[in-house]
Amino acid sequence: MTWCRPILSPRATTTAVWAVVVLLGGPAPLSAQSSASREPPRLSVAAGAGLVQPLHADLDFTAGLWEVSLRGRLSPRVAIEGGFGEWRHTRKRERRDVPLLGPTGPIGHAGRIAERTARTGRSFEVNMVALGRLGRVTAFGGGGAGALTMRRTFTADVSDCVSSVPQACSNSRSVFTSASLAFQGVGGIDVAVASRASVYGQFRFVAPTRDVGSSEIRVSVGARIAVVR
């Protein structure tokens, strides 16, 4: 009778058995750990910049926007988020050889009038957002309420002016402010780039209750940092 020589020695066989046990048993805790890390962070902060488009007919411009937010996860699929955003826009106009008119007719002449209109919009909001994750990408969407404030400052600097009414040659300045409660909707995606960092892109629609025609569309990109995993 011919005997086959064992390919592995008893010691090597024991080592191989333990290796198989480790390989078969190892993926379970690794998978659990990976699954836990795939959940959105419990608490995160974000900051970004973008553009805002006011929908009011008198505000035919696109302005730069910056924003910050704090997001707390209530469950694997739901989070609450508070944020603040601000945009600014300045428009300048210069007029030359401007006739000055009074109630009874011409009262003088200004060689130059430089006008400047500065607008600032600020918003505070609290949103409930739904979360859905696939790999490194987390999609989010929801809405909430907050407040929207507006400030407009108009200045006119007059130079090379001659008038029979001295006040007509004076510089002028006026300020208008308003505030309103607002509702909004938000949606976007986060893409993880590190264990505690991700980049995001989002779309936001803000509608003040006082004047829905003054609603805004905001598009922004930024970074999110996990404070508590």
Task: Give a summary of the structure in a few sentences.
The chain has 229 residues and is mainly β. It has helices spanning 10-25, 27-37; strands spanning 43-54, 63-75, 78-102, 105-134, 137-163, 172-192, 197-208, 216-228. The longest helix has 16 residues, at 10-25.
Helices and strands in order:
Layout: H1 10-25, H2 27-37, E1 43-54, E2 63-75, E3 78-102, E4 105-134, E5 137-163, E6 172-192, E7 197-208, E8 216-228
Antiparallel strand pairs: 1-2, 1-8, 2-3, 3-4, 4-5, 5-6, 6-7, 7-8
Low-confidence runs of at least 5 consecutive residues? 1-36
How many strands in all?
A: 8
CATH topology value: Porin
The secondary structure category is: mainly beta
What overall geometry do the principal axes of the alpha carbons give?
A: elongated
Computed over alpha carbons, the radius of gyration is: 31 Å
Q: What average pLDDT do the residues reach?
A: 86
Distance N to C terminus: 65 Å
**Which CATH-level-2 architecture?**
Beta Barrel
Structure description:
This protein is mainly beta and 229 residues long. The protein has a single domain, classed as Porin (Beta Barrel), CATH 2.40.160. It has helices at residues 10-25, 27-37, and strands at residues 43-54, 63-75, 78-102, 105-134, 137-163, 172-192, 197-208, 216-228. An 8-stranded antiparallel barrel has the order 1-2-3-4-5-6-7-8. The chain starts with 9 loop residues before the first helix and ends with a strand.
Task: Based on the model shown, name its key terms.
single chain; mainly beta; Porin; disordered N terminus
